[in-house]
Recover the amino acids of this structure.
């Protein structure tokens, strides 16, 4: 069965389509980027409710592909993406590793499992570490010499038999556009915690992110900035950690805590660093709320460093989004994701952009907002709604990403449920309202003035097909294939997982998205009882800047 599923590589790679909703409308192309890879991971014994420690071996990562990020090589159309690759049939066990997508000239050219965190790529050892049960939270960025970096979060799931240490932060990099990867920092972890397990609020790292100075004329060109949160205890107690490489990832400084004001505590998280064209290092994060109260107002803070990441300040409150009080959206089971995303201009120093989802308590739905600063994050504009659906009280827009490209281009992309579900074989509830998902894009133009980025036209549909987040509904080998947001079968509290964010990148010629879709059946795989399985695939969307007026 596993080898048959590898046929998806050739068949899905050809599944390119175009979207043109009206005469003169921007032409959007979609192509399936994900495909099964053969690597290392943990199987689930027949009849078991979880994998067993000590059983890692060669296995296909060939089911759901949730959560992604995307970065474009400066001055080119070459992309490298990353996402979760769930292991074999075991999506209900939250059983995954990171995989990378090589996309020379903007075209998917193959996937690989991120090496260095499983028993196969580590020479067959079962020792934990260097073997880990999982690797998570995709993110990447490029330097000026063609090296792309990824910050990894390997960890051991609760079923790993109490193996310690159970979490780490590690750097990998690629010099051949994501086809092969090497360990950075001399093969050592940037951070390693001894007492974390994935089902409790122990001492655990989470939500790591990377940014690189890829501005050739700046003093700190090609310096690499790694940030993550160390959580300790049930109250969150999140501390943002920072480490910097000044030799293209070969070594990193000792991690130090980002000293934040008391107003941001106790749970600083969702950390997004970004580098401006003058070399200023920015960081945005959410903090200043009580982690025991899910129904709360979030606080997004932004700070900057002008000394190569050694110190940051002042910490400015940029936005106060209202968080989803339920943690999920109506009509579906998947967990809601990260509330905000942040990027700095690639052209104009001091121009920075923030997008976030916001819960409307009166309507019970989500909307996406945009705010910006043109003075280095000191003053922020009045937030404006990004989604332009006719009746915002009826449908949800959520999980936004923001990116800036060379020149004037800025964009926000988000998951959108404004259209009713279509009628096709991949949809479990045809015609259902506020259920199926597409990707919408809002372009902006930034001319470098104090007015900042201004919207250009309306929302653009980046999806050829709406997709059903309740898929896959099929079983394989007696196991459900629906991906869980936790390590058990059936899913803990019924919650599913489509990822906490998705990828958006802007080149000189195009805007790209990398996002989930369940529209495309896995070829060569037959579900129990017959028929295809509609796994989560990662789809690369592309629209030319020229067609958008950028």
């Amino acid at each position: 069965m596993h080898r048959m599923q590898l046929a998806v590589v050739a068949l899905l790679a050809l599944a390119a389509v175009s979207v043109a909703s009206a005469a003169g409308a921007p032409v959007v192309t979609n192509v399936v980027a994900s495909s099964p890879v053969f690597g290392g991971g943990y199987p689930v014994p027949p009849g078991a409710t979880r994998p067993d420690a000590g059983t890692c071996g060669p296995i296909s990562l060939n089911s759901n592909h949730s959560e992604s990020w995307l970065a474009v090589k400066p001055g080119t159309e070459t992309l490298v993406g990353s996402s979760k690759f769930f292991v074999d049939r075991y999506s209900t066990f939250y059983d995954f590793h990171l995989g990378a997508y090589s996309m020379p000239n903007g075209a998917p050219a193959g996937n690989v499992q991120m090496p260095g965190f499983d028993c196969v790529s580590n020479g067959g050892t079962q020792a934990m570490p260097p073997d880990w049960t999982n690797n998570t939270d995709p993110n990447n960025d490029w330097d000026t010499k063609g090296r792309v970096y990824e910050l990894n979060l390997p960890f051991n799931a609760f079923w790993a038999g109490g193996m310690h240490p159970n979490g780490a932060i590690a750097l990998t990099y690629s010099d051949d556009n994501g086809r092969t990867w090497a360990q950075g920092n001399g093969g050592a972890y940037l951070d390693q915690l001894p007492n974390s397990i994935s089902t409790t609020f122990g001492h655990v790292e989470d939500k790591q992110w990377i940014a690189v100075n890829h501005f050739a004329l700046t003093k700190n060109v090609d310096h690499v900035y790694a940030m993550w949160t160390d959580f300790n205890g049930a109250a969150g107690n999140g501390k943002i950690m920072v480490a910097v490489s000044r030799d293209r990832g070969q070594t990193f400084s000792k991690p130090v805590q980002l000293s934040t004001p008391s107003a941001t505590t106790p749970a600083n998280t969702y950390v997004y660093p970004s580098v401006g064209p003058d070399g200023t290092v920015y960081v945005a994060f959410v903090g200043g709320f009580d982690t025991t109260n899910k129904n709360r107002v979030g606080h997004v803070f932004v700070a900057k460093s002008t000394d190569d990441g050694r110190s940051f300040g002042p910490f400015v409150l940029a936005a106060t989004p209202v968080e989803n009080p339920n943690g999920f959206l109506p009509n579906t089971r998947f967990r809601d994701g990260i509330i905000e995303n942040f990027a700095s201009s690639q052209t104009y120093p001091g121009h920075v952009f923030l997008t976030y989802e916001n819960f409307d308590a009166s309507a019970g739905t989500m909307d996406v907002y945009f705010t910006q600063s043109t003075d280095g994050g000191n003053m922020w504009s009045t937030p404006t709604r990004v989604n332009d659906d006719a009746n915002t009280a009826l449908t949800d827009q959520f999980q936004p990403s923001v990116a800036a490209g060379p020149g004037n281009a800025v964009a926000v992309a988000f998951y959108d449920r404004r259209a009713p579900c279509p009628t096709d074989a991949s949809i479990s509830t045809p015609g259902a309202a506020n259920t199926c998902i597409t990707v919408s894009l809002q372009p902006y133009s930034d001319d470098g003035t104090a007015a900042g980025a201004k919207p250009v036209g309306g929302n653009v549909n980046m999806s050829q097909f709406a997709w059903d987040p309740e898929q896959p509904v099929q079983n394989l080998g007696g196991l459900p294939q629906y991906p869980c947001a936790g390590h058990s079968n059936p899913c803990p509290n019924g919650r599913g997982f489509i990822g906490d964010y998705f990828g958006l990148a802007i080149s000189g010629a195009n805007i790209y998205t990398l996002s989930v879709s369940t529209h495309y059946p896995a070829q060569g795989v037959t579900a129990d009882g017959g028929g295809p399985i509609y796994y989560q695939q990662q789809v690369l969307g592309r629209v030319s800047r020229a067609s958008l007026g950028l």
